[in-house]
Design a protein that fits this description.
The structure holds two protein chains of two kinds. Chain A contains four helices and no strands. Chain A is mainly α. The chains are: A mainly alpha, B mainly alpha.
């Protein structure tokens, strides 16, 4: 799966989790840029991404993420 | 050494002189020496515990960083966090241990009680250490190689009594550029200290007598008076805790170090989730990162039950952090129930109000009011200390046949120990406090205040000092959070 495909699917995951159909994300998007992105919604994102891409992450991997770009790279390293 | 004593003021002045005269490379050493001197003035024995915990975490973090295999990193992390957690749990359950000792040795237990005094700032500095170890394991921060810097992070005296719980990744980089503090920052620090004193002397302490009286004997008060007491305690706790946080942050600024904010107008929170994003932020965000996240990850395959369980455990942990008593467990559990209901209904509530814009406008007022009352109720358990006392308070608060002949709506100011005028002045001070918070959160208004003519700004400072002199009492109450 290419980074562009991952990005598009991930945008839909974000839109669903934050209940915002117009939400846009970039590689540099962080929790500070999205209203309501807290520890709770962060894990909801992880769980939704795990389901979408049929992958699994560890707590250590999740805690090391600093922006959407990191998240896309992590998914790319797992998704087939 | 209390933050409100003359001895402490002299200590800070002497420390500032030494800090400012010293060459840049020795400033960290001076701050560390000051921090340990402050700690030793409370207890030399427990200073050894502080030093030992610091050394253990320092070595463990280096080991985690150097270990080649993931298994070994994990083993060192788990062992260190477990040991630090046991130290905290041991002291926090001291009350229960004392009860056992008393039961076994009768009156001799009182001697044992003297031995089990919780070390100053234990909950705050052990949380710093545990967070640091996990951050190193998660590769969020590198292990600190300079022991002086690390020991200063843990023992930094302004944050020792009541926090805030600053993250290593936020504090340690500031030490690399620790120079002569900016005069504007120092002025801001002094302003912050004055604001903290204002909250303590003009709001928190004048309400302390009223609250203590009500919790000592609720049967002597009417339902209306007890209702007033629940609001008063919420306000007292907020002014007291945010007051000492202001003093801690202001002191830090005098030494050129910035700390994290701990409050953001919590009683204007729109719902319970919002409240816990605004109240004791350094603790709630700590638990969100280091307890809730791993727990939620572990329970993520259990759907909403897993989510509810992780939320509930997290909130009970917030209660237990204050002490191992059933009243604090109840405080956490009540908030846990609030939080679970709030989180599980978020989407539904959002959709409901989106379709009803007229109700949505009412929600802007009703949401904060409901949240305030839910929190004020939970705080009855926080203040009571024991479950039986909390239930006794609630029994007399609820207007059923339990008032012992006292009219439900009696408002006896003599009984409350306050005059209506003084009460109004305290309320006025509380409005000023929240007004100042609001201004500080608006970048434009903040700049406008700082650029206002000097007589206006200084007039305000002197007015604050005047209020302190009029409302302040020599019989100073201890800071509530200093016991944790």
């Amino acid at each position: 799966m290419s980074p562009v495909e991952i990005h598009q699917k991930l945008r839909d995951v974000f839109r669903d989790v934050f209940d915002d159909p117009l939400l846009e994300i970039t590689d540099s998007t962080t929790a500070a840029d999205v209203e309501d992105w807290d520890s709770l919604t962060h894990i909801n994102l992880i769980v939704a991404a795990e389901k979408t891409y049929a992958v699994s992450f560890t707590t250590k991997e999740v805690k090391a993420l600093s922006n959407v770009g990191d998240f896309i790279r992590l998914i790319a390293s797992r998704a087939k | 050494m209390s933050f409100l004593s003359l001895k402490f003021a002299l200590f800070v002045v002497a420390g500032l002189i030494a800090f400012h005269l010293a060459p840049g490379r020795f400033r960290r050493h001076i701050l560390l020496a000051l921090s340990y001197a402050f700690y030793i003035s409370a207890s030399a024995l427990y200073a050894l515990l502080l030093f030992g915990s610091t050394l253990a975490a320092y070595v463990a973090a280096r080991l985690i960083e150097k270990s080649p295999g993931e298994d070994r990193k994990l083993r060192v992390t788990v062992a260190t966090v477990t040991i630090l957690g046991l130290v905290l749990a041991g002291f926090k359950s001291a009350g229960w241990l004392v009860e056992i000792v008393r039961a076994l040795w009768g009156t001799g237990g009182s001697d044992a009680a003297l031995l089990i005094i919780i070390p100053l700032g234990l909950s705050f500095y052990l949380f710093k250490l545990v967070g640091y170890i996990l951050d190193v394991y998660w590769t969020n921060v590198p292990a600190e190689h300079d022991f002086v810097s690390f020991a200063l992070y843990v023992a930094f005296f302004p944050q020792m009594v009541c926090g805030p719980i600053q993250r290593a990744g936020d504090f340690l980089p500031q030490l690399e550029t620790l120079g002569q503090p900016d005069p504007a920052e120092m002025t801001a620090g002094l302003r912050r200290i004055l604001f903290g004193l204002f909250k303590k002397f003009a709001i928190a302490d004048p309400l302390a007598g009223l609250v203590t009286g009500m919790y000592s004997d609720p049967s002597a008060y009417s339902s209306l008076e007890l209702l007033l007491g629940t609001y008063c305690f919420a306000l007292q706790l907020y002014a007291d805790f945010s007051g000492i946080t202001d003093i801690a942050l202001g002191l830090g600024k005098l030494f050129g170090l910035k700390g994290p904010e701990n409050f953001r107008m919590p009683f204007f929170a729109t719902d319970i989730q919002d409240f816990w994003r605004r109240w004791h932020i350094s603790l709630s965000s700590w638990l969100a990162d280091y307890l809730f996240t791993p727990l939620r990850m572990a329970l993520r395959n259990f759907g909403e039950i897993g989510l509810a369980l992780a939320l509930f455990i997290n909130m009970v942990a917030i209660g237990l952090w204050h002490g191992a008593t059933w009243a604090f467990v109840a405080f956490g559990a009540i908030n846990g129930v609030y939080m679970v209901v709030s989180v599980l209904t978020t989407k539904k509530r959002k959709a409901f109000f989106r379709d009803r814009p007229h109700l949505s406008r009412m929600r802007a007022v009703a949401g904060p009011l409901l949240t305030l009352h839910l929190i004020a109720f939970a705080l009855i358990f926080f203040r009571a200390g024991e479950l039986s006392q909390a239930f006794e308070y609630i029994e007399h608060l609820v207007p059923v046949d339990a008032t012992g002949g006292i009219a439900l709506f009696r408002l006896d100011w003599a009984q409350l120990g306050l005059s209506p005028l003084k009460f109004l002045v305290i309320l006025g001070c509380a409005v000023c406090m929240e007004g100042s918070h609001w201004v500080s959160l608006q970048p434009n208004w903040r700049a406008r205040f700082l650029e206002a003519p000097r007589p206006l700004r200084w007039g305000l400072y002197y007015a604050s000092i005047l209020v302190l002199a009029v409302l302040g009492s020599l019989d100073t109450q201890k800071f509530i959070y200093a016991q944790f």
